[in-house]
């Protein structure tokens, strides 16, 4: 990309961000972001704390609930349960859809349960989160939104970004929490679905794989996965040195949080350590601008790029453990990805879908419409929101179909 084109692209994104951004609110003291000194004994998905929140057109409640990290250790997680104001007019009981947010950042101010309520650091990205939530609420679904594990709940450590096990656990457990939350009118054993895009696409896909063993009582009728970063080995190469290299940095923070025994930071030079600490405080859009076009080889002690380390022990085993596509989902799934995606190569999402097909899963693959290769990943989210809501409607109507394996 030429320098003039880069400058033009940055200027365009900056103008859009400025038009949609809202100044951060005052410091948040909401109790769901403070974990108890000792986590209560209980079941995965139990509600620890709750309090009314704000969201137009829905009864909104912020929650703190029990879940598990990738080492199966109990942890407190925050999120939101939203019930549309309009009555459910579909068949059976009102469904609950777990919304797995896409990349929102690493800082405590970035949590979607804050930005959806008009707090924290709101910008274009948080506006996109609301687009997805609104599409689901518009179909009459209740929405159970997880923040995943992260520093928004004090003492929970860094966000284990795109780490398969912890994100699947938090997505499945927020459904349980919504079912158990008093005063919502939601069924305790009704139909549920899962939807997410980008980071949320991989979290939704991971939840699809683990639902049968981790949460077998949930009646998961369908899972929508948009643009999933299912293979971190591919992304370590494709993101490095590009506009979205911040997402690679986020993934390294995630590995360091989830697998401290790997001693990832031992590989970093002083510049790498500094960048690591800076990235932990950012939300998505500032991180993209701050770190774009960084070469990871300039941040390691021996000058090798991150991808070379991830191909060696112990990181190769970590990458393998976090690859999605190795377990057959027990429910119908839809996977969408733009052929023009400028962040996550479409081949990554398509390979995950093909891997599921090879295991006999019911998979519907569909290209996600995108009209430009520039910002196609971000703008594709808006199309994905409507696609997810429409497909889940057919699922809850008992019309999921048999998929199109072998035809993509």
Automatic annotation (TrEMBL):
This is Lipase. GO terms for molecular function: triacylglycerol lipase activity. The keyword Signal applies. The keyword Signal applies. GO terms for biological process: lipid catabolic process. Keywords: Signal. It comes from Amycolatopsis suaedae. Residues 1-27 form the signal peptide.
């Amino acid at each position: 990309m030429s320098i003039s084109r880069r400058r033009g692209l940055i200027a365009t994104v900056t103008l859009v961000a400025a038009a949609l951004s809202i100044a951060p609110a005052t410091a948040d003291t909401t109790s769901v972001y403070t974990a108890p000194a000792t986590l209560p004994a209980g079941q995965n998905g139990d509600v620890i704390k709750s309090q009314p929140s704000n969201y137009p057109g829905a009864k909104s409640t912020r929650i703190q609930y029990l879940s598990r990290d990738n080492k199966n250790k109990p942890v407190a997680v925050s999120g939101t349960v939203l019930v549309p104001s309009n009555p459910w007019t579909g068949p059976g009981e009102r469904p609950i859809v777990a919304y797995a947010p896409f990349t929102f950042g690493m800082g405590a101010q970035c949590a979607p349960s804050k930005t959806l309520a008009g707090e924290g650091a709101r910008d274009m990205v948080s506006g996109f989160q609301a687009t997805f939530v609104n599409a689901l609420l518009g179909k009459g679904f209740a929405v159970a939104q997880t923040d995943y594990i992260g520093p928004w709940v004090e003492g929970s450590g860094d966000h284990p970004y795109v780490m398969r096990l912890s994100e699947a656990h938090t997505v499945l457990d927020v459904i349980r929490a919504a079912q158990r939350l008093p005063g919502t009118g939601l069924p305790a054993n009704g139909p549920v679905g899962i939807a997410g895009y980008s980071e949320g696409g991989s979290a939704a896909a991971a939840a699809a794989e683990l639902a049968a063993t981790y949460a077998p009582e949930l009646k998961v009728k369908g899972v929508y996965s948009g643009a999933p970063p299912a293979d971190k080995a591919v992304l370590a190469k494709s993101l490095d040195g590009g506009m979205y290299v911040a997402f690679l940095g986020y993934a390294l923070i995630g590995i360091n949080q989830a697998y401290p025994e790997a001693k990832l930071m031992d590989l970093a030079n002083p510049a790498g350590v500094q960048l690591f600490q800076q990235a932990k405080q950012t939300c998505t859009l500032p991180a993209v601008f701050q770190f774009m076009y960084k070469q990871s080889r300039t941040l390691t002690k021996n000058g090798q790029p991150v991808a070379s380390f991830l191909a060696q022990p112990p990181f190769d085993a970590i990458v393998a453990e976090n690859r999605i596509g190795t377990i057959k989902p027990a429910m119908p799934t839809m996977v969408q990805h733009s052929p023009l995606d400028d962040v996550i190569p479409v081949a990554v999402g398509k390979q995950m879908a093909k891997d599921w097909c090879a295991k006999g899963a019911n998979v519907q693959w569909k290209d996600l419409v995108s009209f430009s290769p520039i910002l196609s990943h971000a703008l594709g989210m808006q199309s994905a929101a409507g696609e997810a809501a429409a497909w889940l409607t057919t699922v809850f109507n008992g019309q999921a179909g048999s998929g199109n394996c072998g035809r993509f």
